[in-house]
Design brief:
With 257 residues, this protein is an alpha/beta fold. The chain has a single domain (4-251), classed as Rossmann fold. The chain contains 7 helices and 9 strands; from the N terminus they run E-H-E-E-H-E-H-E-H-E-E-H-E-H-E-H. The longest helix is centred in the middle third of the chain and has 22 residues, at 78-99. The protein binds 1,4-dihydronicotinamide adenine dinucleotide and the ligand O=C1O[C@H](COP(=O)(O)O)[C@@H](O)[C@H](O)[C@H]1O. 1,4-dihydronicotinamide adenine dinucleotide is lined by residues 9, 11-15, 32-34, 48-50, 68-70, 72, 84, 88, 107, 109, 173, 175-176.
């Protein structure tokens, strides 16, 4: 059944991947502080997520929130992640609970756990023969202040689930690139998320039933050091792409096959 979905940060790259695959599958309300540059499905709300009133208005009649808006830069300074990623995320969770939203899908990041990639473990960790896997049950070990803000968002989700029974899934997104995996970047190839697997994963986050979950958001890469077990089991995610199927030449993945 089509769900009424509020997508924050809709004008960005992850928003583009989600809408590229799912524009016709749900009823969309899009929100971003930047206005759209081209035609978009549904209604577009130009607002900042730190604007409580605007966020509250945008929640009316919504079943599911996909919360992407924020500063995505691993090198982002504290004042920006504090405002956009922590304060903004709290505003979104609070408004979702008040509006009776069923589920919030939170865009977390590989950088919430980036410091598991110790000097001893890397670069072997990024290679197929290495069987070390993070599975989402580990504590955060952020690699920068941006990663700290994502760990804070996951904790906000835990609180709003436990206190208000909101269904929450935190997706620790890897490295989203369009068409092919990052070139000459082993870490990026290990955590590649193709555009079409991104759409598949977020579709499952919209449709599946869950309580509080942390899952990894990557394609089914041979090199992976993030487990897909939980995303498969709880969400029914079935990724189709694998960075190993690219040899450095331009092999473009068709948008929706
Ligand atoms: N692209 C990737 O590979 C990854 C992305 N993520 C997370 O996914 C989310 C989306 O990332 P991208 O699409 O790559 O970034 P992006 O920069 O392309 O898109 C983010 C969007 O959020 C909007 N935005 C930022 N702050 C806002 C605010 N205060 N109020 C309203 N809108 C605001 C921006 O205008 C932009 O359109 C971010 O939370 C990021 O941390 C996490 C891991 C990997
Ligand atoms: O969280 C994010 O992670 C990806 C991958 O990190 P990188 O340090 O290997 O580039 C990054 O591209 C994205 O901008 C960021 O939001």
């Amino acid at each position: 059944m089509a769900q009424s979905v509020l997508l924050t940060g809709a004008a960005g790259r992850v928003g583009e991947a989600i809408l590229g695959g799912l524009a016709d599958d749900h009823e969309w309300r899009l929100l971003d502080r930047d206005p759209p540059t081209d035609d978009q499905p549904g209604e577009f709300v130009v607002a900042d997520i730190t604007d409580e009133e605007a966020v509250r208005e945008a929640m009316a009649g919504i079943d599911v929130v996909i919360h992407l808006a924020g500063d995505p830069r691993p090198e982002a300074p504290w004042d920006s992640v504090l405002t956009n990623n922590i304060d903004g995320t709290q505003t979104v969770f609070e408004a979702a609970v008040d509006a009776g939203v069923e589920k919030v899908v939170f865009a977390s990041s590989n950088h919430a756990v980036g410091n598991y990639e110790t000097d001893e473990r890397t670069p072997d960790l990024y290679r197929e023969h290495d069987d070390y896997l993070l599975d989402g049950t580990e504590l955060p070990r952020p690699s920068n202040l941006y990663g700290v803000s994502k760990a804070a968002g996951e904790t906000l989700g835990r609180y709003y689930h436990d206190e208000y029974d909101l269904s929450v899934v935190c997706v620790r997104i890897g490295n989203l690139t369009r068409g092919h995996p990052p070139i000459d970047y082993e870490r990026g190839q290990a955590m590649w998320l193709s555009y079409r697997d991104c759409a598949r994963l977020f579709d499952r986050c919209i449709r599946a039933d869950y309580e509080y979950e942390i899952v990894y958001g990557i394609s089914d890469n041979d090199r992976k050091y993030y487990s897909l077990e939980r995303a498969r089991e709880v969400l029914g995610y079935r990724p189709r792409d694998n960075s190993a199927h690219f040899d450095g030449e331009e092999q473009v993945v068709e948008p929706d096959t």
